[in-house]
Design a protein that fits this description.
globular; 13 helices; about 0% strand
Length: about 325
């Protein structure tokens, strides 16, 4: 049966791989193999639009699915084989390209260092960003924030003891501590409404850059594989550690640009909450995991490094467009 309740439209294709995959999803699963996809993957750029969109579509079947797409595709063996090919290309490229710290402590210490003369996206938005920059940034980030914390939940059954308890405590806050109106994805939807953006889940998939797709795909890749549980914990540590200062600058940017209180609130909420989360993640989740499974230290360090590396590429893409006076989105908002 089609994915019940899904209103997410399949995206526009971005190349041969995504074209073949999206075409296949219009058929019933299990009826035929996907020979038109096998063989195309190896020639695709592992960070390119085509491969990253195809991977995103595969992963989205595990979240809310797509309108008109049979829900049975989620576990279709042939599609999973295609997804595995896409994942192998992506993870192999990351392992070849991303420099990784020698130990987890050094990697975590580096995350808390704030440069004296920062020049990243949050600095640009705070100091000179206009409302249209902030709207584009929110549209890109909606690919994650409208399902904020969902990719990280996959790791909880794969943890034990302190790591499991700490992770569950942080996720409880991310999901509103039992209050639907406080769920962080809902707060981000409120931010989008304040910026006069469509709050529908998946609405800006066609607008999202390949760099943003890769950043979101990394979470799903780590989350959906038990073998990457250490890398997922590293990813989560990176997100929670770097969030407070960046969120403070983004709240300042929104206030300066004249955004409303709901927009400012989302990032203001993350300044305080994630400062607490940082300590929980470092001293309970990471330390607890490595106490139980010290052999995962390099995986944790890789997760931290890959997260920062892809985030930097996303930032470079945004700033390259904006400083040239151009839009950063793939289609107009």
């Amino acid at each position: 049966m089609p994915g019940k309740g899904s209103t997410v439209k399949l995206p526009e294709i971005r190349g041969e791989v995504s074209a073949a995959l999206i075409k296949a999803l219009g058929r019933e699963p299990g009826r035929r193999r996907l020979p038109d996809i096998h063989g195309l993957v190896a020639g695709a750029d592992p960070y390119g639009d085509d491969l990253q969109l195809a991977l995103y579509v595969c992963y989205e079947l595990h979240y809310r699915g797509f309108d008109g797409v049979d829900g049975a595709w989620e576990w279709d063996p042939e599609l999973l084989r295609v997804r595995a090919e896409l994942e192998r290309e992506f993870i192999a490229a990351l392992r070849a390209d991303v420099p990784v710290a020698e130990d987890v402590g050094s990697a975590l210490d580096e995350l808390v260092l704030e440069p004296v003369d920062g020049d990243g996206v949050s600095y640009f938005l705070r100091d000179e960003g206009e409302l249209w920059h902030l709207r584009e940034y929110a549209a890109h980030r909606s690919l994650y924030h409208l399902k904020e914390a969902d990719p990280h939940v996959w790791v909880i059954p794969r943890l034990t003891g302190r790591a499991k308890a700490g992770m569950a405590a942080v996720e409880y806050d991310e999901f509103g501590a039992g209050r639907a109106e406080q769920v962080h994805s809902k707060l981000f939807a409120d931010l989008m409404a304040d910026l006069q953006l469509d709050t529908s889940y998946g609405r800006y998939l066609d607008a999202g850059s390949r760099q943003m797709l890769a950043a979101v795909n990394l979470m799903s890749l780590f989350g959906l594989h038990r073998s990457h549980r250490g890398a997922l914990v590293g990813h989560f540590a990176s997100v929670e550690t770097t969030s407070p200062p960046g969120s403070r600058r983004l709240a300042q940017a929104l206030k300066r640009a004249g955004a409303g209180p709901a927009a400012i609130r989302f990032y203001a909420e993350h300044v305080e909450a994630d400062a607490v989360h940082e300590q929980l993640v470092r001293h309970e989740v990471v330390a607890g995991l490595l106490q139980e499974e010290p052999n995962l230290a390099q995986d944790v360090a890789f997760g931290i490094a890959a997260t920062g590396w892809l985030d930097d590429r996303f930032g470079e893409q945004l700033l390259g467009a904006w400083r040239g006076g151009e839009s950063s989105v793939c289609v107009p908002l």
